[in-house]
Amino acid sequence: MQTAPLTPGQKMRQYRCKMKQKGLRSVQIWIPDTRSPAISSALRRQSLLASRSPEEQEVMTFLDDVRAWDEP
Predict the structure, then answer these.
(1) How far apart are CA 21 and CA 16, in angstroms?
(2) How many structural domains does the chain have?
(3) Entry's InterPro entries (predicted)?
(4) In this structure, is residue 8 part of a structural domain?
């Protein structure tokens, strides 16, 4: 006797139960949608502001120093 195939909801419930038994928990995060023109524009504006900040040279020096760690 064959049983009916599981619905997507039933499969997801089984998967979540299995993951919980392994000691994991589900976490949902929201991130900016870079495909959105409004978000893309805001990110560009913030990037330009950051590049003009007085601390920018200090940060770039730090990044250059860190990058040099991998060089022989």
Answers:
(1) 9
(2) 1
(3) MazE-like (IPR021558)
(4) no
Residue 55 falls inside a structural domain: yes
Q: CB atoms < 10 A from the CB of 28, how many?
A: 4
Per-residue pLDDT tens listing for the chain (72 residues): 678 899 999 999 999 999 999 999 999 999 989 899 999 999 999 989 988 888 888 888 888 888 888 776
- Give the predicted TM-score (pTM) of the model: 0.44
Residue-by-residue DSSP string for the chain: -PPPPPPHHHHHHHHHHHHHHTT----------TTSHHHHHHHHHHHHHHHTSTTHHHHHHHHHHHHHTT--
Would you state the pLDDT for residue 72?
Answer: 65
Distance of alpha carbon 61 from the chain centroid: 26
| Residue type (1 letter), 63 | L
